[in-house]
Amino acid sequence: MQIKRVGQFTVVLENLPRIIATGTAVGPKEGGGPLGKRFDYVASDRMLGQKSFEKAELELMKEACNRALGKAGLARKDMDFFLAGDLLNQIITAGFTAATLNIPFLGLYGACSTAGEAMSIGSMLVDGGYARFVLTAVSSHNNSAERQYRYPTEYGGQKPPYSQWTVTGSGACVLAHSNEGIKIPLVTPGRVVDAGINDPFDMGSAMAPAAAQTLVDHLRDVRSNPEDYDVIITGDLGGFGTKIFRELVKEKSGHDITDCHVDCGLMIYHDDDREVNSGGSGCACSAVVTYGYFLPEMLKGNYKRILWIVTGSLHSPTTYQQGETMPSIAHAVVFEN
Amino acid sequence: MQIKRVGQFTVVLENLPRIIATGTAVGPKEGGGPLGKRFDYVASDRMLGQKSFEKAELELMKEACNRALGKAGLARKDMDFFLAGDLLNQIITAGFTAATLNIPFLGLYGACSTAGEAMSIGSMLVDGGYARFVLTAVSSHNNSAERQYRYPTEYGGQKPPYSQWTVTGSGACVLAHSNEGIKIPLVTPGRVVDAGINDPFDMGSAMAPAAAQTLVDHLRDVRSNPEDYDVIITGDLGGFGTKIFRELVKEKSGHDITDCHVDCGLMIYHDDDREVNSGGSGCACSAVVTYGYFLPEMLKGNYKRILWIVTGSLHSPTTYQQGETMPSIAHAVVFEN
Question: How far apart are CA B125 and CA B130, in angstroms?
Answer without folding.
Answer: 5
